[in-house]
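TICKET: design request
STATUS: open
ATTACHED STRUCTURE:
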């Protein structure tokens, strides 16, 4: 089966947030508009999505060609009927069967319960939910043995076969129920996450719910796991029980040595050591736009700025799409709409979801009041994070409503930096995205970051900046940050649906629009025009007109009558054979 590493290497892309982001067909090497995700149920073993709107079949053929597969014919064969390859029994304390998880090939899972007549009912109904291998789990806890929590039954069985006490919850990642936690009262728990974003989130959720119930909760990331690997893969690759027990003991011994030898050595590392370190990929709340960390979303008032975060919040809490087709992973969102009231919020959500969309998301927490960050606001965000299963995004609309009170002894830079410092640390500690909405200045600036209101302290503290702006050529969304590639997207706001859509790279989109404006001006002209006249007629800067005219003459879109005079090819009466020529010099 093809891996993410193989795809990323073949396409010159990178792995990010459980997907490969790579150049699309015909795009530049720095482009990251093509998303490829591994899906073993798909005919090709992967699925593609183009953020630039490229044809999906062309994108799929492009990927297949790069990895050495034949073209996709657009008519995949009908998959074979799934077959059962494993059955996992869930029993009560006495070993009485309550339910069963069934594993299929192609990969899939279903749960069922006995019907009392030797058959099965393919729903759990009111059946009691329990942990996998519950009788053995309780016995191991009574013997004071550490308990390992994996994500799936196959991994648990592999660990138990080694003699390592293990369990999991039915349903996999994100399905831990509060009633499972009481079984671990006083236990020493070690969580073994899968090597992917869902595995990390599941480990954090379980760790939070067990803290204060278990005597000790730790997370152990097994060394050498491939992306999306799990403890089963680790055991299959030769992992042993002795290695696991050593890994559990090593951190404690290491911490004691560091405490004894405190000082600068405890906080430094060599370049050689850094080279061998492995890190989880940067996780994106919105792929290509909004990574984890602290983000400033700035724009002029009344530009439609507040519709974007609300659309993001609804997409994440429903597992939907936004910005014209960008798929996001589902999770919990806190939206502090500090310039709205409940009536206005209801109207806005109704506009985005429509009154006929069914249930509104329970995973979206809304607030119209919030304490300032230095007066308990950060602690309140922490408390919210602890109250939900998968906190992914906190939206502060606007920053002015929650920012810390300025200390008169601070400079403006220090005040702005301190205003965001605590929430920046929180975002890093909790691996979530905190996005604060802010305003831009009226004055234009050469560097888009200089348009953000306030000092550079705000930008210096934030990890990412998103700037929504209107220009004579249309709206743009500028993105720059520590973990995102700098880019400027052309965007459009639909006043009927109140949604923003990404049209593509701003330079490419606006270049096409500018060419259209020049062609219209020349077509409407009654005489050949100079670059200065074209600039005045179209509103395009003179320097940009010069550059475009050079390319348009070269592409035979525009005719140059004489040096510095141009006309539309359709205006034949302006063209004389002895004067018309292909432009080779600057205008």
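STATUS: resolved
RESOLUTION: sequence designed for all positions
ATTACHED SEQUENCE:
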């Amino acid at each position: 089966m093809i891996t993410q590493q193989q795809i990323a290497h073949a396409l010159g892309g990178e792995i990010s947030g459980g997907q490969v982001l790579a150049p699309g067909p015909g795009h530049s090497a720095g482009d990251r508009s093509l998303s490829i995700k591994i899906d073993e149920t798909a005919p090709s073993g992967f699925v593609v999505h183009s953020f630039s709107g490229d044809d999906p079949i062309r994108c799929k053929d492009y990927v297949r060609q790069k990895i050495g597969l034949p073209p996709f014919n657009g008519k995949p064969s009908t998959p074979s009927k799934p077959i059962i390859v494993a059955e996992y029994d869930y029993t009560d304390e006495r070993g009485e069967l309550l339910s069963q998880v069934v594993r299929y090939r192609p990969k899939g899972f279903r749960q069922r319960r006995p019907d009392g007549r030797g058959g099965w009912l393919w729903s759990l109904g009111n059946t009691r939910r329990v942990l996998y291998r519950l009788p053995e789990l309780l016995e191991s806890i009574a013997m004071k043995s550490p308990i390992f929590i994996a994500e799936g039954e196959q991994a648990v069985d592999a660990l138990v076969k080694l003699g390592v006490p293990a369990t999991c919850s039915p349903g996999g990642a994100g399905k831990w129920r509060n009633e499972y936690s009481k079984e671990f009262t006083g236990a020493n728990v070690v969580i073994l996450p899968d090597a992917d974003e869902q595995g990390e989130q599941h480990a954090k959720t379980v760790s939070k719910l067990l803290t204060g119930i278990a005597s000790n909760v730790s997370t152990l990331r097994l060394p050498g796991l491939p992306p999306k690997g799990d403890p089963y893969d680790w055991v299959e690759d030769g992992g042993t029980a002795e290695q696991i027990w050593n890994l559990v003991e090593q951190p404690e011994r290491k911490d004691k040595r560091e405490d004894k030898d405190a000082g600068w050595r405890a906080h430094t590392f060599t370049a050689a050591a850094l080279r061998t370190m492995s890190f989880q990929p940067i996780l994106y709340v919105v792929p290509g736009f909004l990574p984890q960390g602290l983000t400033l979303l700035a724009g002029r008032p009344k530009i439609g700025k507040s519709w974007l975060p609300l659309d993001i919040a609804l997409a994440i809490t429903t597992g939907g799409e936004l910005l014209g087709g960008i798929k996001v992973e589902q999770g919990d969102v806190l939206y502090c709409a500090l310039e709205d009231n409940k009536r206005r919020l209801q109207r806005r959500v109704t506009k985005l979801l429509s009154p006929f969309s069914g249930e509104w998301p329970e995973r979206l927490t809304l607030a119209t009041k919030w304490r300032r960050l230095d007066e308990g606001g950060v602690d309140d965000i922490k408390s919210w994070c602890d109250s939900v299963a998968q906190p992914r995004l906190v939206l502060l609309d606007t920053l002015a409503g929650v920012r810390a009170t300025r200390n008169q002894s601070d400079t403006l830079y220090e005040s702005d930096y301190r205003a965001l410092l605590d929430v920046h640390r929180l975002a890093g500690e909790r691996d979530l995205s905190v996005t604060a909405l802010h305003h831009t200045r009226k004055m234009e600036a050469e560097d888009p970051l200089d348009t953000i209101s306030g000092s550079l302290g705000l930008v210096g503290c934030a990890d990412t900046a998103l700037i929504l702006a209107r220009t004579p050529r249309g709206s743009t969304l500028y993105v720059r940050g520590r973990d995102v590639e700098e880019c400027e997207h052309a965007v459009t706001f639909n006043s009927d649906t109140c949604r923003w859509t990404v049209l593509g790279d701003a330079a490419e989109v606006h270049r096409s629009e500018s060419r259209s404006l020049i062609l219209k001006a020349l077509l409407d002209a009654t005489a050949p025009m100079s670059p200065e006249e074209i600039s005045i007629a179209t509103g395009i800067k003179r320097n940009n007109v010069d550059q475009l005219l050079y390319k348009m003459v070269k592409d035979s879109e525009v005719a140059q009558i004489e040096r510095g005079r141009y006309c539309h090819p359709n205006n034949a009466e302006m063209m004389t054979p002895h004067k018309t020529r292909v432009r080779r010099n600057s205008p």
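CLOSING REMARK: DSSP finds 17 helices and 27 strands in the chain. Residues 80-128 form one domain.
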